[in-house]
Write a structure and sequence with these properties.
443 residues; alpha/beta; globular
């Protein structure tokens, strides 16, 4: 536990303060942005009376946690849409956000209000002061989210793990079902580069006797080994459940089917525009959480699910937050399946602690021309440095801009009618464009 000197009461926002005041306070409170460990957050949760025997004390909801390198947001969105289509009241906690912090806490299809979040942060701060510890921005946000979700009268809660798994603040909850989507190298400074070790960290969300969903056929062996060591029954993609690729084996073009060893298959599901492995894992997780799946409800959910910033089209522009090579390869593959007559541009902005060269190499087969943009802040990568990586990889840089907005304005004047643009590299890059009037509709 990290002790701190308790600040005077006047140093923190009051009970009537705005959400913006609270967010600014949490940003400056803790000396580091990421501080792995559960002791401090568990102690504050205990003083908030949030937990009882590892569960949310004020909620009877079934809880599903989702960890992984890529596909977490898609899987959470799919679980939520499917649960709602089956008549369940659903709450989700995700991170980061694109435009507004409220996106992180969703209560039955609606972002939490400023008032609710501010009240939650006030409860967190009172308990934090009593405990005499410090909390990171993410830890405080997680506790606030749990406080909000526990009081919303929900049937299903879906919690996205922020970083790793074993030591992430979300892992103070003993979930009824835990999902691991994919394992790849990312956040190397915290998780290292060894995939087996990363897998063990992600699998730290598993619990003895509770189902673990393995949502990729390419997971390192350590994920299944961790489940076995804990006595968590594992349900693996390709063994215990599977999906028929869209358009294959009797499906109409654009349709797919979900199969599981225990229970009926679901046929003629529309392509949700999100990875089908994630969709299959979402269906399996819900079945294990006690939801009686039906084809009509699943079809309805798959046809309506939407996740901003993931293969999201705005006219000629496709916005995707892919920021590591694994995610970039998926996006490039999807783009290459689409008919294309003109140029394929990429507007790329990345943080300095990401594998820019790897992302560029993964995107390169689908891109003809590049626009590089700078991201602000201490972690932001300069456009010129990014351009050097593109050139080193054999790409053609047409423009460097001081911001995503400036890059989009320049590029918008260059496009021919049959050109297409991928916007990628960071939540910050995509979020900046979605805030522009030309992209803001229906976000």
């Amino acid at each position: 536990m990290t002790p701190v000197t308790r600040p005077a009461m006047g140093d923190s926002p009051g009970a009537s303060s705005s959400l913006g005041d609270w967010l600014a306070y949490w940003e400056r409170l803790h000396p580091t942005g990421i501080d792995m460990g559960l002791e401090r957050v568990r102690e504050v949760a205990r003083r908030m009376a949030l937990l009882k025997d590892g569960r949310l004390s004020a909620s009877a909801a079934r809880v599903i946690t989702v960890a992984g390198t890529n596909g977490k947001g898609s899987t959470v969105a799919l679980i939520a849409a499917l649960a709602q289509a089956h008549g369940k009241r659903v709450g989700t906690y995700t991170s980061p956000h694109l435009l507004r912090y409220n996106e992180r806490v969703n209560l039955n299809g609606e972002p939490a209000s400023d008032t609710r979040l501010a009240a939650g942060f006030a409860a967190v701060e009172q308990a934090r002061r009593e405990a005499g510890v410090s909390l990171t921005y993410f830890e405080a946000g997680t506790l606030c989210a749990l406080w909000c979700l526990a009081r919303a009268g929900l049937d299903v809660l879906v919690l996205e793990v922020g970083l790793g798994g074993r030591l992430d603040a979300v892992n103070i909850i003993d979930a009824d079902v835990a999902v691991v989507t994919t394992i790849a190298r990312d956040h190397a400074g915290f998780l290292g580069c060894d995939l087996d070790q990363i897998g063990r960290e992600k699998a730290g969300i598993f619990r003895p006797g509770r189902p673990a969903v393995l949502g990729s056929e390419a997971l390192p062996a350590s994920v299944a080994e961790t489940a076995a060591d804990l006595g968590a029954p594992a349900y693996a993609l390709g063994r215990d459940f599977s999906r028929t690729p869209a358009g294959d084996a009797g499906c109409e073009p654009g349709e797919w089917a979900f199969h599981r060893a225990a229970g009926p298959s679901l046929a003629a599901l529309p392509d949700p525009g999100l990875p089908l492995d994630n969709a299959a894992a979402a269906l399996q997780a819900l079945a294990l959480a006690g939801v009686d799946l039906t084809s009509p409800a699943a079809r309805r959910a798959m046809g309506q699910v939407c996740l901003p910033g993931r293969m999201q089209w705005r006219g000629q522009w496709c916005l995707d937050v892919a920021h590591n090579p694994h995610a970039a390869a998926y996006v490039a593959g999807r783009l290459q399946t689409l008919p294309q007559r003109g140029r394929r541009w990429c507007l790329l902005g990345m943080l300095d602690d990401k594998d820019a060269a790897g992302v560029i190499a993964a995107l390169a087969p689908a891109i003809s021309d590049w626009v590089c943009v700078s991201l602000a802040g201490p972690r932001g990568r300069d456009a010129q440095a990014l351009a050097a990586d593109v050139v080193a990889g054999g790409g053609r840089v047409r423009y460097c801009a001081a911001s995503p907005e400036a890059g989009a304005e320049w590029l918008g004047e260059q496009l021919a009618d049959d050109d297409r643009v991928l916007v990628a590299g960071s939540f910050f890059t995509v979020g900046a464009l979605l805030a522009m009037p030309r992209f803001a509709a229906d976000v």
